Amino acid sequence: MIVVKQTAMTDGLCIKDSKTLRRLELDEIVKVVKGPLQESATKVMRTLIKALKDDAEGWVSPTGNAGTIFLKEGGRQFKVMKENVLTETFELDGEASKANEEEALGEVLSKRKLKPGEVLDALVWPRTDSSGLVRLKVRAQSDHATGWVTVVGNQAGKGP
Questions:
Q1: Model confidence over 86-107: pLDDT tens digits?
Q2: DSSP per-residue letters across the chain
């Protein structure tokens, strides 16, 4: 599911007796663990979710008691179609401009090849970097490696 309006994630099903764990941010992606279940006091539907960006687990109301929509269904998984590289940083230029040898070695070690067929969970929706590449923050389902991957290249018709 995708967060379409900021909302609180709490530690319990019952809103009145719960403590806020953290706020879910706009466009954040969450996975349903259990529910929806109706909260007895308010009659609001509550869902136990897991936030993909930090694995935090808690309860949310997908729709508020006044009809405000906080979460909606949405695709969050991607399949690697051709070999690609998972990197630590959003900007590829930042990695390429590292000056000394130790940093360059660290850059190589911070990358992981993605193989065709691998399934990725989106953590941050695609956005465009300064060079025109469309990048997406993901977690690989196979080994939980997390990083940025290019989903659309900056050369016309030459996406990865």
A1: 998 888 764 443 343 344 434 4
A2: -EESS-EEEESSSSSTT--EEEEEPTT-BEEEEEEEEE-TTT--EEEEEEETTT--EEEE-SB-TTS-B-EE----EEE--S-EEEBSSS-HHHHHT--SHHHHHHHHHT-EEEPTT-EEEEEEEEEE-TTS-EEEEEEETTT--EEEEEEE-SSTT---
